[in-house]
Amino acid sequence: MNRFLYINGSPRGEKGSSSALILEDIREILKQEGGTEEQVQSLTLPRKTGSSDSAILKKMEESDVWILALPLYIDVLPGHLTWWLREYQTFREALPDKKNIRVYGVVNCGFPEAVQNADALRVLKLFCRKSGLEWRFGIGLGMGEPYKQMHGIPLQSGMKKEILNSYKAIAADLQKKDTSDFGDFYVRIRYPKFLYKIQGAFGWVFRARQNGLKKRDLYARPLLEA
Amino acid sequence: MKVYVHLMFTVSTLADAALKPVQGAAEGVIEMKYTIIHDCPDPMGQDILRYMQDSFKGIEGLQFIDLQSHPMEPCTGCFNCWLKTPGLCIFHDAAADIVKEIVNSDRVLFLNPLTWGAYSPQLKILLDRSLCRVLPFFETHKGETHHPSRYEKSPIPFLAGYGADLDQDEMELFKSTGQNLNDNLHKTGMETVIIRNRDDFHLLDSFAGTKSMGGAA
Questions:
Q1: Is A188 exposed, middle or buried (0-12, 13-18, 19+ CB in 10 A)?
Q2: Does A204 lie at the interface with B, CB-CB under 8 angstroms?
Q3: Taking CB atoms and an 8 Å cutoff, what residues of chain B touch A82?
């Protein structure tokens, strides 16, 4: 029996998080592809750190497959996620019997280059190795910030073909018997990079105006000492 | 650049004990401000810290900031530091004060235990809170998209990671982590060192090499 745990590693939690939508999409694809999914649970790791929660750590341990989605924060994992994964590693180290857990990681960044997620995937891989978990492969997703704005575009459309294929690879990997390495995927929506950048810049200014700010206000340097 | 000695760290949320400027030989105007930010929760880290405190003794304008002493709110990803209060985080805690210290330093050293080839949780929480140091817009740097710096001048960073049982993958990744930190936040010269035992402590001395750049050793 496969117990799936979908872990949302975004500090935004469920609200406004691309990671939550990515997990929703993967879950849907795994269903369609007829995976071995039998029992599904979700976990959004709390943003607050400093005080551990054994119920969370047990939930992580009592699963056979993790699908972990997170945003890229300053090149690697968000701080709160690093804290929780270290808590889990310490918890697991103390266990007399360590059962196998297969791990898939999906990291999204706002930059158009999906490959900027590579080091975050390497961190996850090392975390798995040190914790005795079975790292399967990762997906680095570029242009991740507007994932929610573009969520209306079906995954089956040409624009999202690369993304869909990477999600399907998880299903394929779960179904195959051998443990050969799939390799990581670096994907993004098919959208011109220059347009994405221009729209992004307009978008920031538009959102700032909604807060009563002018474009020049965005360049403030309030921390500079005289 | 002139920075005045005896930094006035007025924010009450930081205990004096945690922010310890090393007293200079003389008061007055100095040329540089050095900040060492450390997360050393274990004996090895404390040993390294003592080494630095001894080695850098007498350098004016040097301060140590202990991340273990300061609870910090992790970033929420709200982008308010870009779009509502540009350059300022919504959380007014130690991390906000430390980011201000970084912005106003000439050189900054980050010391932490390597965690899967990257940062310790405490240091990472601080770095995430540094998002206010960049602008929301995009620029191309070394062929990749990044955010431009909010401030014209950036402190020269020095990233130090330590650990007794590090493997090759962890060390390679940490070097890459340092390079990425520079490309994203600093865009200046950058030094990344890995300390595995006492024989490596001297690698930190190049931060003290600043003695010849204005410090009064």
A1: buried
A2: yes
A3: 115, 118-121, 124
Residues of A in contact with B150 (CB under 8 A): 219-221
Angle between helices A118-131 and A79-93 (to 10 degrees): 20
SS3 content of chain B, % helix, strand, coil (to 5): 35, 20, 40
**Smallest CA–CA distance from A212 into chain B, residue:** B84
Question: Given B75, B176, B185, which is nearest A119 (Cβ)?
Answer: B176
The number of C-alpha atoms within 13 Å of A91 and in the hemisphere containing its C-beta is 17
Judging contacts by C-beta atoms under 8 Å, the chain B residues touching residue A80 are 74, 121, 125
Q: Which residue of B has its CA nearest to A223?
A: B100
H/E segment holding residue B171? helix B168-181
Domain boundaries, chain A: 3-191, 192-226
Could you tell me the fold of the domain covering A3-191?
A: Rossmann fold (3.40.50)
Residue B57 CB: number of other CB atoms within 10 A?
12
Distance from CA of A111 to the nearest CA of B (A): 6
**Domains delineated in chain B:** 3-211 (3.40.50.360)
Would the CB atoms of A76 and B118 count as touching at under 8 Å?
yes
Nearest C-alpha neighbor of B74 from the set B119, B140, B122: B122
| Distance of alpha carbon A93 from alpha carbon A125, whole angstroms | 17
Contact (Cβ atoms closer than 8 angstroms) between residue A67 and residue A37? no
In order along its 217 residues, chain B shows pLDDT tens digits of: 333 333 333 233 333 333 444 334 345 555 789 999 999 999 999 999 999 999 999 998 999 999 999 999 999 999 999 999 999 999 999 999 999 999 999 999 999 999 999 999 999 999 999 999 999 999 998 889 999 999 998 888 899 999 999 999 999 999 998 888 888 776 677 889 999 999 999 999 988 664 333 332 2
Distance, in Å, from the CA atom of B45 to the CA atom of B104, rounded to the nearest integer, reads: 26
Interface touch A126/B77, C-beta < 8 Å: no
Amino acid at site A29: I
- Alpha carbons B210 and B215: distance in angstroms, whole number: 6
